[in-house]
């Protein structure tokens, strides 16, 4: 029996033994851990900290014991010694400077006094705007530097000296800002986009000397220098290593050609030779023969070239630029067609299938409105007139950019039709029957044209037909416009013109100014401009209409001892905004930042900061569009007004007819005002029909930033429109009052209630 029992248990015997052994070891380890913990708890000055990799000891103050590493992160509290003076930490202007980022590419063009106004100008007009930074270096400069070119003159026309000074200047001024340096001559045409694409595929950690490799005359067969006529690329690391040896190269190396001199300097002191291929990238060049016709060049070597040399004159430079632009444009069109074909092939695999394919292929689908208020309206036009005018009139003459846009879109439609049906048919335009256009923010400008065309067959038969075509001008690549750096620390000088009709609102304005600027110690000042009617000015010694305002100003100055609020008194029947600003401008420094306010404006810190950031001296002025609340008597009709913070922009509209508020620098106003004075001569009556906005619009080359401003909210008030102003200003004032009454729904409800009351 025992033998039979053992035979039956033999298959499970290893399992039983394994379980028994495992349980025993677990109990033994648990007893060891418990005894070790008891021993550590006996020490008052020692505590444990268990980690996954084992145990460690820590002293009571949290520092690791000797011979052990502390891998547990701890928050170190900030502590400043009160006995030491506080030192403010200075931060860099841009985060990329603090992180050590560099710009990608710097381009240097070597020119001369003889070719500065010819070939250098051609380079500047063709490729300069494609490079992020481009400078021209010459020995001697002419009396007049061409417009739009940054020129550095070294004072000596010797080629070697020019190269030496150029390399020294680049290292001193741009060596720490750029990763790559491209040096070319003014008789070189470079494809800017391909040069920029080349540096994006090269590693910045290597010493790179790249261009068209040429052999030295009578020198080492393995050593190469980069031919200067085809341009060459130098990395930042190579420039930093080369700079200490430039003086030695100037004194020890003799050469006639500056590119050979530079190549010999790099080879002798750094041991680096010129290469035409590196890291899988090729530096393709093409040497132009005499009497070359760029329009007829079809060689693959020509089309792939990054640089072309020599370019003998300006006309040839422009012809090369036109030819290469056409080549790049054809490549872009071919890539678009290939992508559209791939999209068509993949559309059948999507859940929507063929129905999900939009037109044009690859462009976003049209915007689908969710309600009737989101429907984008179409503007009707013909070849002579536009039936949706900026000033609100039903019909106006088609001119300027709109006329050029219509002409271009008709030509594009004919070109597309001929490219599709030729050689069977050839179309020519007889007349534009109807034209419609609208701007879709999701895709671009859409057009629908009804064209009366004449179709001519290959045999010469003609036929007149009407055809409808649809076109889309898609939104192109979004570009970031470079803007000068501004801060929020600029002092704002508020200017408040006041008339007798504004007296009821001055108290609220001063209260808001004191609460939002004086109490918060904002860097803002206030100047009041009292506008007296001639009749009131004669009686000012007996009855001063602004005596109450002056008393309020005195109370503010007593409450805030360090605040002074000056005022200026003006006598006029027609308070022209330009004439008033002329008086204020003369009493302030040229670097003053003005905020021209109205008495209904509620000043707050949020808007003042935006005024500072959106106004840039010698660059941009800011004309905010304030939010005008509706008449509460019509909107709420006796009900309680909404007071929640989310509804403060609900019952009102942005008043686009008002240009009363403006932010600008005094220097910019004085410059524009000088040009205006030269234009109008002594006709001061013209100023009565102008506002400050008109002065900047017509007599300054600055950017006029006109945008809605949710931080500038005005309570409802019926403005008094002076009939002695110009017809346009008076009309705008009346429209502002009418549109500020209420919305159409509120006006309809008020009319309905009035009719109901009249019927009963």
Question: Layout of helices and strands, plus pairs?
Answer:
Layout: H1 2-9, H2 13-41, E1 46-51, E2 54-59, H3 95-98, E3 103-110, H4 119-126, E4 134-138, E5 151-153, H5 159-174, E6 178-185, E7 189-190, H6 192-200, E8 209-211, E9 213-215, E10 224-226, E11 232-235, H7 236-242, H8 246-252, H9 258-270, E12 277-278, E13 281-282, E14 285-287, H10 300-303, E15 307-309, H11 314-347, E16 379-381, E17 385-386, E18 396-397, H12 400-421, E19 425-440, E20 444-457, E21 462-474, E22 492-498, H13 503-518, E23 524-532, H14 534-538, H15 547-559, E24 567-571, H16 577-586, E25 593-596, H17 605-614, E26 620-629, H18 632-635, E27 652-654, E28 662-665, H19 666-680, H20 692-699, E29 703-714, H21 727-739, H22 744-759
Parallel strand pairs: 3-4, 3-6, 4-5, 14-15, 22-23, 22-25, 23-24, 26-29
Antiparallel strand pairs: 1-2, 6-11, 7-15, 8-11, 9-10, 12-13, 16-19, 17-18, 19-20, 20-21, 25-28, 26-27
């Amino acid at each position: 029996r025992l033998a039979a029992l053992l035979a039956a248990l033999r298959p499970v015997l290893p399992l039983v033994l394994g379980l028994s052994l495992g349980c025993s070891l677990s109990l033994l380890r648990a007893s060891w851990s418990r005894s070790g913990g008891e021993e550590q708890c006996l020490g008052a000055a020692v505590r444990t900290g268990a980690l996954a990799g084992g145990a460690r000891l820590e002293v009571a103050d949290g520092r690791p014991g000797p011979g052990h590493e502390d891998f547990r992160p701890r928050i170190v509290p900030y502590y400043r010694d009160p006995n030491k003076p506080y030192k403010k930490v200075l931060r860099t202007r841009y985060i990329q400077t603090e992180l050590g980022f560099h710009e990608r590419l710097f381009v240097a063009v070597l020119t001369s006094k003889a070719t500065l106004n010819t070939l250098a100008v051609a380079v500047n007009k063709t490729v300069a705007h494609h490079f992020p930074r481009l400078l021209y270096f010459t020995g001697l400069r002419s009396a007049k530097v061409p417009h739009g070119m940054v020129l550095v003159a070294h004072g000596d026309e010797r080629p070697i000296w020019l190269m030496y000074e150029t390399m020294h200047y680049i290292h001193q001024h741009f060596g720490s800002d750029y990763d790559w340096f491209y040096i070319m001559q003014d008789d070189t045409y470079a494809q800017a986009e391909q040069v920029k694409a080349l540096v994006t595929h090269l590693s910045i950690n290597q010493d790179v000397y790249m261009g068209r490799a040429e052999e030295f005359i009578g020198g080492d067969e393995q050593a190469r220098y980069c031919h200067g006529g085809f341009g060459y690329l130098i990395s930042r690391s190579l420039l930093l290593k080369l700079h200490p040896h430039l003086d030695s190269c100037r004194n020890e190396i003799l050469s006639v050609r500056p590119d050979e001199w530079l190549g010999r300097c790099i080879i002798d002191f750094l041991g680096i030779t010129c290469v035409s291929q590196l890291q899988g990238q090729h530096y393709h060049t093409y040497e132009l023969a005499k009497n070359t016709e760029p329009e007829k060049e079809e060689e693959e070597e020509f089309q792939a070239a990054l640089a072309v040399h020599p370019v003998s004159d300006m006309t040839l430079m422009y012809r090369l630029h036109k030819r290469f632009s056409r080549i790049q444009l054809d490549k872009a069109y071919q890539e678009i067609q290939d992508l559209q074909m791939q999209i068509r092939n993949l559309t059948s695999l999507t859940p929507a299938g063929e129905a999900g394919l939009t037109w044009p292929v690859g462009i976003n689908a049209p915007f689908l409105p969710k309600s009737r208020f989101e429907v984008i309206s179409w503007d009707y036009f013909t070849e002579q007139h536009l039936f949706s005018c900026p000033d609100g009139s039903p019909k106006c003459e088609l001119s300027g950019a709109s006329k050029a846009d219509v002409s271009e879109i008709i030509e594009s439609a004919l070109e597309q039709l001929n490219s599709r049906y030729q050689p069977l048919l050839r179309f020519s335009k007889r007349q534009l029957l109807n034209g419609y256009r609208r701007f879709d923010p999701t895709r671009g400008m859409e057009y629908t044209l009804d064209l009366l065309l004449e179709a001519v067959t290959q045999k010469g038969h003609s036929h007149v037909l009407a055809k409808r075509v649809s076109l889309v001008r898609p939104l192109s690549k979004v570009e970031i416009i470079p803007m000068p750096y501004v801060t929020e620390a600029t002092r704002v000088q508020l200017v408040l013109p006041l008339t007798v009709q504004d007296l009821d609102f001055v108290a609220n304005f001063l209260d808001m100014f004191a609460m939002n600027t004086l109490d918060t110690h904002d860097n803002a000042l206030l100047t009041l401009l009292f506008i007296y009617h001639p009749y009131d000015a004669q009686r000012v010694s007996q009855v001063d209409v602004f005596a109450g305002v002056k008393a309020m100003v005195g109370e503010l100055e007593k409450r805030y001892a360090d605040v002074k609020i000056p005022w200026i008194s003006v006598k006029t029947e027609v308070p022209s905004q330009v004439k008033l600003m002329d008086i204020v401008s003369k009493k302030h420094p040229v670097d003053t930042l003005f905020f021209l306010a109205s008495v209904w404006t509620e000043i707050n810190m949020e808007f003042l900061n935006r005024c500072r950031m959106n106004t840039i001296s010698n660059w941009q002025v800011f004309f905010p569009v304030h939010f005008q609340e509706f008449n509460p008597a019509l909107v709420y009709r006796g009900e309680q007004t909404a007071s929640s913070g989310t509804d403060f922009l609900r019952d009102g509209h942005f008043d686009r007819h008002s240009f009363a508020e403006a932010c600008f620098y005094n220097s910019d106003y004085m410059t524009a005002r000088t040009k205006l004075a030269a234009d109008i001569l002594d006709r001061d009556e013209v100023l009565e029909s102008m506002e400050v906005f008109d002065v900047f619009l017509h007599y300054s080359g600055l950017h006029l930033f006109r945008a809605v401003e949710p931080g500038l909210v005005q309570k409802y008030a019926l403005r008094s429109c002076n009939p002695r102003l110009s017809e346009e200003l008076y009309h705008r004032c009346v429209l502002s009052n009418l549109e500020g009454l209420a919305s159409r729904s509120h006006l309809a409800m008020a009319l309905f209630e009035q009719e109901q009351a009249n019927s009963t």
